[in-house]
Automatic annotation (TrEMBL):
Coiled coil: none annotated. Gene3D superfamilies: 3.30.420.40, 3.30.450.60, 3.40.367.20. It comes from Salix brachista. Keywords: ATP-binding, Glycolysis, Kinase, Nucleotide-binding, Transferase. The keyword Mitochondrion does not apply. Residues 43-242 form the Hexokinase N-terminal domain. One of its GO terms (molecular function) is fructokinase activity. Belongs to the hexokinase family. One of its GO terms (cellular component) is cytosol. This is hexokinase. It holds the Pfam family Clat_adaptor_s. The lineage of its organism: Eukaryota, Viridiplantae, Streptophyta, Embryophyta, Tracheophyta. Residues 249-487 form the Hexokinase C-terminal domain. Pathway: Carbohydrate metabolism; hexose metabolism; Carbohydrate degradation; glycolysis; D-glyceraldehyde 3-phosphate and glycerone phosphate from D-glucose: step 1/4. GO terms for biological process: clathrin-dependent endocytosis; glucose metabolic process; glycolytic process; intracellular glucose homeostasis.
Length: 707
């Protein structure tokens, strides 16, 4: 680049450099220009040291793939933590209700609420609020930070408008996006491994961040609960997948950076114990810690040495928004000190770490004017300097070199992930449309960064393959994704009446399926049904999405261990079955007829030759009767979450942990007894007794009177 030559100081004159000493006093240095390195040579060295030609990005991509494999093999196997997210199933589109999301990123804190309307209506309404995280909280105590979050949330919840509806008695549920490395221990708990992105909050590392938030909500009197702890990348993946089934990877490029992707469970050697029924899970790579083969400049090394985590997060420090401006600032300060860029004195303002922010260098790069006026005024505002046109050009060269490296390395990282997936599942990534969902302020606002990233991906994959790889800004970001994951992992397994699908098919079974030995059955709602002969049910199960059996009734004698096996197998069979498929599925030598109501699966096991629709109707009848007796959603919720209620606060009171008091246990026993009684009213010894809803309800009424 020849632009630098014009500002190269002439040999032999004096220059003065002022920058703060460690004691904060301005230091004035004088030097002979003969000792001075020219600005041009500093720029050239910078450009050389951070160059990312093809072999460099090829190496980074391959090395990323290798590190991913090492991290999946064993915990601690590589820089990349490859954290299990406990998100095994992604939103289906059927989610309904009001959910909240919190997002603690690096710069901002966001609170969001969303009203989900199911497949048809999707996102009915959203509202959000965003605040900058006060600087002092980044270095304060854990209580201070989480109290800030809880009180902001409380204020936000108070402003809920009438567009949002929470079913009576239900607690507001939160998807909590926490964009720092967390060792997830379940979908709603995780231990903070370390702070990144300049945070140094005391008392949180090694603790469950959900517990920290719950305690703060308790202190602030906020009656909400966290249903899903979500990394921001995972939230982005979930949010994007809600609209597009081809999304398999999500990348955040904001203050910090991270990536996650959908992995096959059989490709995760370190995954012990039961695998997810879908055979897939989301892996949070924590790729910010990657470091192999990254070209570094002296400015990177100095910035790293001065950081609160020297030697760590090297990928993050070269590609993410927190650092790009700072690297550029360090280069400009050196140019000012050693090459008198901006005149005789080093501008004081520019000597302050992080004075030049990434949005500043981005804004400068958008200046297309001949005299680079915007660059001049930004330099004036940020660094307090009056600059010449040639100096402005140099500043742009510095910014471009750093941003080009950042974007290209990010692109190489993405290729590293994609090629890992392709190697394990030939043809399923590169030979079809695969979407990488992107989010974060850096990606969103920096067009040059985006195009450098895309260039590297195209260079590495070739023009043909890269046509199949769609890298796009995620429509909703991680916020709605987190709310969606709160919905998919909702703790309120209620039979929401609106979710109960009406079965209104009228069938005369006497003409078909003789093997079922059914008499006339008209399943039109409201009509009484007549059943003759035997309907032989082996067992009936009511399970939640996580596979917890809430109710089990066996009409065949089975050992306890066998029952557990059956329950596990049935759960796996039904939980991730595509809703497009039938509700009947072969199970060993029998078949299972199942139906999902909100978060609960009702499953019946019958003979392979039995009539499926009749049993489907039977399930629905059972649900209708349950609905009748537990018409209040909250009460239905109580049935299955009973031990979590604190009776001293009343039935609709806030849930505060589990309660095993004799009172609570007694109440639980009564409710369960009632449910079993209802079940017995219409199925006895595996045979349908009564199929008239009215008759059963009347008989239950008689029983109540007897009590
Ligand atoms: P976080 O990462 O804190 O969750 P964001 O995703 O909003 O938050 O990213 C904020 C970061 O994005 C900022 O720290 C900054 O580095 C970068 N950024 C924000 N605005 C711009 C912009 N206009 N140009 C370039 N980078 C930007
Ligand atoms: Mg974020």
């Amino acid at each position: 680049m020849s632009v630098a030559a014009t500002t190269s100081p002439a040999v032999g004159t004096l220059y003065v450099s002022r920058f703060p000493t460690s004691r904060g006093m301005p230091r004035v240095t004088m030097a002979l220009r003969s000792n001075v390195v020219s600005v041009g040579s500093i720029l050239t060295k910078l450009q050389q040291d951070c160059a990312t030609p093809f072999p460099v990005i090829r190496h980074v991509a391959d090395s990323m793939t290798a590190d991913m494999r090492a991290g999946l093999a064993v915990d601690g196997g590589s820089n990349l933590k490859m954290i299990l997210s406990y998100v095994d199933s992604l939103p289906s589109g059927n989610e309904k209700g009001l959910f909240y999301a919190l997002d603690l990123g690096g710069t901002n804190f966001r609170a969001l609420r969303v009203q989900l309307g199911g497949k048809e209506d999707r996102v009915v309404a959203t509202e959000f609020e965003q605040l900058s995280i006060p600087q002092e909280l980044m270095f304060g105590t854990s209580e201070e930070l989480f109290d800030f979050i809880a009180s902001t949330l409380a204020g936000f919840a108070e402003k809920e408008s009438e567009k949002f509806h929470l079913p009576h008695g239900r607690q507001r549920e939160i998807g909590f996006t926490f964009s720092f490395p967390v060792k997830q221990t379940s979908i709603d708990s995780g231990i903070l491994m370390k702070w990144t992105k300049g945070f140094a909050v005391s008392g949180t590392a090694g603790r469950d961040v959900v517990a920290c938030l719950n305690e703060a909500m308790e202190r602030q009197g906020v009656d909400m609960r966290v249903s899903a702890l979500v990394n921001d990348t995972v939230g982005t993946l979930a949010g994007a997948r809600y609209w597009d089934d081809d999304v398999l990877v999500a990348v955040i490029l904001g203050t910090g950076t991270n990536a996650c992707y959908v992995e096959r469970t059989d490709c995760i050697p370190k995954l012990q114990g039961p695998k997810s029924s879908s055979g897939r899970t989301i892996i949070n790579t924590e790729w910010g810690a990657f470091s192999d083969g990254i070209p570094l400049t002296v400015f990177d090394r100095d910035m790293d040495a001065a950081s609160i985590n020297p030697g760590e997060q090297i990928f993050e420090k070269t590609i993410s928004g927190m650092y790009l401006g700072e690297i550029a600032r360090r280069a400009l300060v050196t140019m000012a000190e050693e090459g008198s860029l901006f005149g005789m004195a080093v501008p004081n303002k520019l000597s302050t770490p992080f004075a030049l922010r990434t949005p500043d260098i981005c804004a400068m790069q958008q200046d297309n004017s001949d005299d680079l006026q915007a660059v001049g005024s930004i330099l004036h505002n940020v660094a307090g300097v009056e600059s010449s046109l040639s100096e402005r050009r140099i500043v742009l060269e510095v910014c471009d070199a750093i941003v080009r490296r950042g974007g290209r390395l990010a692109g190489a990282g993405i290729v590293g992930i994609l090629q890992k997936m392709e190697q394990d599942s030939k043809g399923t990534i590169f030979n079809k449309r695969t979407v990488v969902a992107m989010d974060g302020g850096l990606y969103e606002h920096y067009p040059q960064y985006r195009s450098y990233l895309q260039d590297a991906v195209t260079e590495l994959l070739g023009s043909e393959t890269s046509k199949n790889i769609v890298i796009e800004h995620s429509k909703d970001g991680s916020g709605i994704g987190a709310a969606l994951l709160a919905a998919t992992n909702s703790k309120s397994e209620t039979l929401i009446p609106t979710l109960c699908v009406d079965i209104t098919i009228a069938v005369d079974y006497s003409y078909e399926h003789n093997s079922t030995k059914l008499g006339n059955i008209s399943t039109e709602k409201g009509k009484n049904r007549q059943i003759s002969d035997d309907l032989s049910i082996r067992f009936i199960l009511l399970q939640n999405r996580q596979g917890k059996t809430r109710l089990a009734k066996y009409y065949v004698p089975l050992e306890d261990s066998e029952k557990h096996k059956v329950e596990y197998e049935v759960h796996r069979l039904v939980v991730n079955r595509d809703p497009k498929f039938t509700n009947f599925v072969e199970f060993r030598t029998h078949k299972v007829i199942y139906r999902r109501y909100a978060g609960l699966f009702f499953a019946l096991c019958v003979d392979i030759t039995d009539n499926e629709l009749a049993y489907l109707e039977c399930i629905h009848l059972f649900v209708e009767i349950l609905d009748h007796f537990f018409s209040n959603v909250c009460e239905l919720d109580l049935v299955f979450n009973f031990h979590k209620i604190n009776p001293s606060k009343g039935i609709h009171g806030p849930r505060r942990g589990s309660d095993d008091s004799p009172h609570a246990r007694c109440l639980l026993a009564c409710v369960l007894f009632m449910v079993y009684l209802i079940l017995d009213e219409f199925i006895l010894a595996g045979e349908l007794q009564e199929t008239s809803k009215r008759a059963i309800i009347e008989r239950m009424g008689e029983l109540e009177k007897l009590e």
